[in-house]
Write a structure and sequence with these properties.
heterodimer, A: mainly alpha, 3 helical TM bundles of succinate and fumarate reductases, 5 helices, B: mainly alpha, two-stranded antiparallel sheet, 4 helices, 73% helix
């Protein structure tokens, strides 16, 4: 005799194990990046290849600096969550967990490094 | 293949989605998987860009090294590739938002949007390289 209803056995067995928070978070960051990224590509593309003083002068200004910080914070969160989605599709068990931790770690290191550089240039 | 869970129900070992091996390659699936590949590959360009920025923050000598790498053929390759990847991911992302709104889901429109993403990303990449 079964003590669990069919519904009870089904709950939590979906591929995501959560509701739509992940998808909604990706939607929100995607819309933010849609505004941020084209401007940032222009700013970064112009700075790349310039000499040391020009590069520092560019990123010492408020607009390029704040824009870069926002692209890094929003972009790396978008990346970590997107990479998690890919990993969940292709890896299982311990490998899945290690890959997800690695994705979040890389994103965090990149954000921390970028913010450190921006602050140091600004000061 | 089938195993039995605690409730005594036979279960089938199902493949993990999206299970590329069994799909017939088509424009819509190709453009979708490319969204994932470009999005994840962009980490390389971002890492290189942040390393370059860190070098600019640390010292002129360190910047000389990072700038030499970033403006070498390797740097050009990574940043040109990243420019295409970012524009492809950008347009495909907008397409996903459009799909999420429940629009453009019939095959003819979806394929048209797919070509739009491919051609648009190449055009924007060329424009980017020319302008910046």
């Amino acid at each position: 005799m079964r003590y669990l209803t069919a519904r009870k056995r089904a709950i939590g067995k979906g591929s995501a194990h959560t509701g739509t928070e992940h998808h909604w978070s990706m939607t929100v960051s995607a819309v933010a990046l849609a505004f941020l990224v084209p401007t940032w590509v222009y700013v970064f593309g112009h700075a790349l290849g310039q000499d040391y003083d020009t590069v520092r002068a560019t990123f010492a200004r408020p607009f390029p600096s704040i824009l870069t910080a926002m692209v890094l914070v929003v972009g790396m969160r978008h990346f970590a969550k997107g990479a998690t989605m890919m990993i969940e599709d292709y890896a299982r068990g311990t490998a899945r967990k290690l890959c997800i931790i690695a994705a979040y770690s890389i994103s965090s290191v990149i954000v921390a490094t970028g913010l450190y550089a921006l602050v140091k240039i600004a000061l | 293949m089938a195993n039995t869970n605690q409730a005594g129900v036979k279960r089938v070992e199902r493949p993990l989605s999206p299970h590329l091996q069994i799909y017939r390659p088509q424009l819509t699936s190709f453009t979708s998987i490319l969204t994932r590949i470009t999005g994840n590959a962009l980490i390389v360009g971002v890492a290189l860009a942040v390393w370059w920025l860190l070098a600019a923050a640390v010292s002129p000598a360190y910047f000389a090294v990072a700038n030499a790498v970033c403006t070498s053929w390797f740097g050009d390759l990574v940043f040109a590739g990243s420019a295409w990847a970012v524009w492809y991911h950008y347009l495909a992302g907008l397409r996903h938002l459009y799909f999420d709104a429940g629009k453009g889901l019939d095959v003819a429109t979806a394929e048209k949007l797919g070509w739009g993403v491919i051609i648009g990303s190449v055009v924007l990449t060329v424009l980017t390289i020319v302008i910046v």
